[in-house]
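INFO  loader      accepted 1 record
INFO  loader      residues=124
INFO  predictor   begin
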Amino acid sequence: MENAKEKIANTIELNRSQVDNLEELFTSDQSYGTTTASCFDPHFAVVYYAKDEILAAISVCLDCNYLISSLEIPAISKKYIKVNEDYSYPAKGFSPIARKSIHAFCKEIGFDKYLKPLGSIYDD
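INFO  predictor   done
INFO  writer      dumping tokens
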């Protein structure tokens, strides 16, 4: 990513427990099932490294309620929103509980510079 250093406000190395918790959250069928917006301006990302090589990345945007991952996450495409008999679309938006968990995690690790209070149309 060109000028990436200028766009990254903060970085930390997660411990094993934090990685496990995020992976469980991001891969759970219960973490998805709602709608999204189309803006996608992520303020939080997880990047997996092996030594100095990037293996995978997950970018999260709570404003528009979804993530983009360099690796397939099957749970994202399991649920659909039916519009009519001929049309449905993936319900890839975070569930309210997943949003709360991601929000709490961002606060816990100090990634709250751009974190807005929950209370959008995607929350309970």
